[in-house]
Amino acid sequence: MGEMSFSAAERGERHDVRLCGALVFNVFPIFEQMADGVRRSSCTEIRIDLSGLVFIDSAGLGMLFALADEVQTQRRQFALRNPAQQVHDILELTSMSEVITIVQE
Fold it and tell me: Most buried residue among 23, 36, 41, 97 by CB atoms closer than 10 A?
């Protein structure tokens, strides 16, 4: 469990990203590629779809938190969407839902 992939698309003012696999320490270079796309985007709303994410560790939580903080500091909206139950439980357990919007659609 240590592979992650992503896809991204801009739709008007919204930058959508879909993460798949496991968001863990050793996928940081792949996460940074995705984050660079978010940074370059001029969209005012960033949505990260977690429905394809099967696992997240503490490093993955840190990566998401750092990106959310960076985006929100720029006065852009940031939300995590549709986490699978296991990932959702970890987000709740770590109180990430108190600092990052999590939407279940």
Answer: 23
